[in-house]
Task: inverse folding
């Protein structure tokens, strides 16, 4: 018989565990696990995400995988993620279309120069 090495086995009998410890086996997040973020903290995360992403996009030391991931993040204007490029730009007071156009223009110039 092969044993499962990862994950929670739903057939596992947990009757012997006291109720106060059952939360350890729950797949639901605890309210205490989700700290409330202030608006300032969210804006700070967005600023850092934008700065790091744009810096890495033009850094020759970054892997192609990272560059492609950042490019997809910037060009996906329908991303519902709270930390999408559009949301990060808007929260930090930037126009996402202007930033996106500038970045894509600069990438096109670099690509033309390399070819």
Result:
């Amino acid at each position: 018989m092969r044993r499962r090495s990862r994950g929670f086995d739903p057939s596992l009998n947990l009757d012997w565990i006291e109720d106060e410890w059952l939360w350890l086996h729950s797949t639901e997040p605890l309210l205490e696990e989700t700290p409330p973020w202030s608006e300032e903290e969210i804006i700070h995360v967005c600023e850092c995400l934008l700065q790091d992403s744009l810096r890495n996009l033009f850094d020759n030391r970054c892997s192609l995988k990272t560059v492609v991931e950042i490019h997809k993040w910037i060009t996906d204007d329908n991303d519902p993620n709270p930390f999408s490029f559009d949301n990060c730009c808007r929260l930090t007071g930037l126009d996402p279309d202007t930033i996106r156009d500038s970045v894509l223009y600069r990438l096109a110039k670099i690509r033309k120069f390399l070819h």
Summary: The radius of gyration is 22 Å. Residues 39-57 form the longest helix (19 residues). Residues 58 and 110 are 9 Å apart (CA to CA).
